[in-house]
Design goal:
The protein is α/β, with parallel strands linked by helices. The protein has a single domain (5-250), classed as Aldolase class I (TIM Barrel, Alpha-Beta Barrel), CATH 3.20.20.70. The protein has helices at 16-31, 47-54, 80-83, 95-100, 105-117, 130-134, 138-149, 177-194, 197-202, 216-220, 237-250; strands at 5-9, 37-41, 59-63, 89-92, 121-126, 160-163, 204-208, 227-230. It is globular. Bound molecules: phosphoenolpyruvate. The site of phosphoenolpyruvate has 14 residues, from strand 8.
Length: 251
């Protein structure tokens, strides 16, 4: 039984004060929703305040990135051991990190291993660009990202992947439920091949890319989709709560 996960990626939005206000606004609604996991991933500087606000709630906390080294001369970076104890999850390999900050599959691989070593749960993001989609390369790109990002990593017992077609992120142009389900089915089969048949069944795979309250059911009613990684709509309390509530109702 895969427990659905609705995760909010706040990206580089909100000051600490704004983050606290936003969280306090959505917390009662989110906390009241059972049967699914709810997760928010605010900017690093707000994690400590969020940890305090969420500590007696059912809402979990995640970071948006980490460095793969434990400590040292890496000015401006945040290490896995700094996040452990504050966060449960960490987003790794988001397409914006891949596009603007040089997070190659090799770097992503190191970050995933480092997250596991620190006891954090990584959410591995994969997805094809518009050009790759239009030239029929989606399967090749997505399976390549998976194999390279997970090379040498043993199945950890549970794992979360977010399939986020780059052309659907922040564009308002979501994939269709069927398109997303087909690629996510392929991701599941690749995981089964890479690790084991059981892991393919167990791994939770989220869809991400312009998810809103209006299209949640389209994605969450698909058999292989276990939740959503939500960007823009996760900054709107009513909308994010509605996405989580609809998910809990449909399972
Ligand atoms: C994301 O940031 O991972 C994302 C999917 O963004 P949006 O929902 O805004 O498309």
């Amino acid at each position: 039984m895969r427990i659905p996960l609705i995760a909010g990626n706040w990206k580089m939005n909100t000051t600490v004060d704004e983050a606290v206000r936003l969280m306090k606004e959505m917390l009662p609604g989110l906390d009241a929703i059972d049967n699914i996991e709810k997760l928010v991933c605010p900017p690093f500087v707000s994690l400590h305040s969020m940890h305090e606000i969420l500590k007696d709630s059912s809402v979990k906390l995640g970071a948006q990135n980490l460095h793969y080294m434990e400590k040292g001369a890496y000015t401006g970076e945040i290490s896995p051991i700094m996040l452990a104890g504050i966060c449960e999850y960490v987003i790794i390999g988001h397409s914006e990190r891949r596009q603007y900050f040089g997070d190659t599959n090799e770097v992503v691989n190191k970050k995933i291993q480092a997250a596991f070593d620190a006891g954090l749960k990584p959410i591995l993001c994969i997805g094809e660009s518009l050009e790759e989609n239009e030239t029929g390369k989606t399967k090749e790109v997505v399976t390549g990202q998976l194999r390279q990002s997970l090379a040498g990593i043993d199945y950890p017992g549970s794992f979360v992947i977010a399939y986020e077609p780059v052309w659907a992120i922040g564009t308002g142009k979501a994939a269709t439920g069927m398109q997303a389900n087909n690629t996510i089915g392929l991701v599941r089969r690749t995981i089964a091949d890479l690790w084991s048949a059981g892991s393919g069944d167990d791994v939770r795979i989220l869809y991400g890319g312009s998810v809103t309250a209006a299209n949640t059911i389209e994605f969450l009613s698909q058999p292989d989709i276990d939740g959503a990684l939500v960007g823009g709509a996760s900054l709107k309390p009513d909308e994010f709560v509605s996405i989580a509530r609809q998910t809990a109702e449909i399972i």
